[in-house]
């Protein structure tokens, strides 16, 4: 029997009369002021009954730089230091589907992440790391299908079953159009690839999260907290609709949808934002869809402390900023957390700053006592009021996007970008007019000498990466590569799921640039 799940938050909407509202409260014996306990819909107080008393959040530090071998060493160092999950940062050429020796890649190889040109690089990246035992998050969007395909093949080469691998691929290209800019194809082609991943994972890799709908980049670009929640949920709804049009059952894929939010500087607002996001997601899902599995409306999310709040001035102050943002994330009930290095306003985090960031999480987890309580601020009048206000404002954002035909159509009209830019302009003016105070920037400013350099990328590593790519091309079976790429070209034209043809191309030794080149031919560019 199809079920509809009780949602306490609808009690505050205008669709119920006061008598109906009181009758519902009496039937359910729910307090107006305090939502149901954690583990119960709408999950305002957390998605698990015991939350961190039963299981600490995943400490997943984001890393990637220089070349696969250097990043592999950083991964092993973080795991040795107590990190509980991996998170891969890819360089800009990889994120845009270019090989390291492409003209478009000049000056960017290995700078803001690890370059991955072929399956050989993916093998090096995870050498000595058992992929059946570790959860891996990959921040990749436009070429997500290619990188997931490579990862899955390497896992199989290690002896893992696809049903064993766990992790997340971001695969959220809609936010690229509105906030980040690293897109390749027009929206329709991008949505096709995104749904291909969702469909393939639901059938082959059930422990893998096929999409992480990202509000983080929306917030980094200048949105408000409510806009971050509303635009992110609107994007998630667009992916759900596209998957349903493909014929996928909501219960088959929606429980594996995950989310990714930033944690900004307003401590109480951010705690309430996370509570609001969970509530609104359940509320919207319950209003729009019928589902048997309650997990379809249970929001799971990863959090990263806000890079945009870090300052180059007096950079060690960032340790304090990151600690408070991490604490807000935990009090808000995150499932996974990355804490930024204090030197990230200057460059990629050094090994020292990465370790301090990880230790920050460990101190929160083991020393200060907050993990012994579930939603410890819940029920406080201010917290519940702020949560309710964010729900209301975020819902207005969703309704605005709906009026423009949903996220995809709104992207084409530039609606979300304009909304974010207007908010960013207000915030920038407030900073310049000293209405927002930032220590070291416009408050308690000090004369400083030369800033530290952050993680230094060795140009020799870039040369080695390009040389390695050349060697790879000269030693592979190019006939097999050509056959695999032709098979992929045919699959694009045939409008079938592209993940298996991409996996075949990866196994043949085709590069990221070659595979994405075929996709550019068939799906176009934007």
- The general outline is globular
- What is the number of beta strands? 9
Helix fraction, binned, reads 40-55%
Helix-strand pattern: HEHEHHEHEHHEEHHHEHEHEHHHHHHHH
Query: Per DSSP, what share of the residues sits in E-state strands of 2 or more residues?
Result: 5-15%
Output the structural class: alpha/beta
The termini sit apart by 44 Å
Question: What is the count of helical runs?
Answer: 20
Radius of gyration, in Å, reads 23 Å
Please, could you describe this protein's structure?
Helix 11 (267-288) runs parallel beside helix 12 (318-331) and helix 11 crosses helix 14. The longest helix has 23 residues, at 381-403. The relative contact order is 0.14. A nine-stranded parallel sheet has the order 5-4-3-2-1-9-8-7-6. The model is unreliable at 1-14 and 25-32 (pLDDT under 50). Strand 8 (301-305), helix 12 (318-331) and strand 9 (336-338) form a beta-alpha-beta unit. It is built from 20 helices and nine strands. It is globular, with a radius of gyration of 23 Å. The protein is of the alpha/beta class.
